[in-house]
Design a protein that fits this description.
This protein has 13 helices and eleven strands. The strands form three sheets. The protein has a seven-stranded mixed β-sheet, sandwiched between helices. A hairpin with a 2-residue loop joins strand 6 and strand 7. The two termini are 18 Å apart.
Length: 365
Amino acid sequence: MKIPFSKNQINNSDISIVKKILKSGWLTHGKYTKNFENEFKKFTKSKYAVAVSNCTAGLHLSCIAADFKKGDEVLVPAMTHVATAHAVSLTGAKPVFCDINLYNGSINIIDVKKKINKKTKGIIIVHMAGFPNQMRELQRVCKKNNLKMIEDCAHALGTYENKKHVGNFGISGVFSFYPTKQISIGEGGMVVTNDKKTYEIIKRRKAFGIDKDIKERKTPGIYDVKSLGLNYRMTDYQSAIGLTQIKRYQKELSARVKNAKYYCTKLSNIKWLKLPTFDEKASYFIFQIFMPKFKRLKVIKSFMKEKIGFSIHYANSLDNMSFYKSNSSKCENSNIYANENISLPVHSGINKKMINHIFRVLKKI
């Protein structure tokens, strides 16, 4: 039985819309990007949304809006994709790695408090695997220490904390539409914010620092550049694919939560596995299981033989990456997490029969 790790939600209707846009010749600056932003605002209940070329671009723009610069330090969890730390480094600021909690990947608040000093200007929260962090406590820490919070929501479309969608707690929240994500458009991202100044900075900086959008110009080609900017725009045909998927995403989200719950019920019978506690507020980008490293090698071998799709998120914590290793203190839980995790498929293309098969393969080991 072949079980794919991920399955995009692009259907024939989406492909028809893309064809229509490609034939129109209007490939960027179009109505679909604006409509996608508006629909995303509605889903997350955010005041503003800006479509960008990818999640890394959104994180970089958020760090620019937060005014991180050389000499500043920004706290980042050691267990995340390297893009989270790179976004900080690109501003000249230094990412300082904090440890996480086992086994849900959220940043450890005790370690956060230990690593705050006079140079600390901000923190990036990562909602790992779609699990929410303890946002109220983190907000209190930020307020007390005058820190700007950015939320990396790459895994967390549909994740809630205290009945509020993640991305609405910090100055901004950044989402990813990479092929394996809950919504896929190939590459792409979305920044949400409730702060008008942050919105205006990100909107301007993502398009070269130009002061007027193409539709706001009275004469084509006449505009001014009032700040340094980049080209972090999303195409209109990508936006069209995202727009249709966000409209029907609730069904996909419900399937992911249902599959995660069944995984928890079924796999809890395997004593050598560690499982995250089921959380109905999580969006389950992936379903992670944990085991000793020598067991993981056996599981990987069995999964490959049985054609069961899997991944590892992530196999190395950032404090062990060559680029960051020299200026990092060891984060013990993050290293355990890296050595023990395997990500299982949890998307709507997975059913109980497939989960039962995964259970049987694991049970044999």
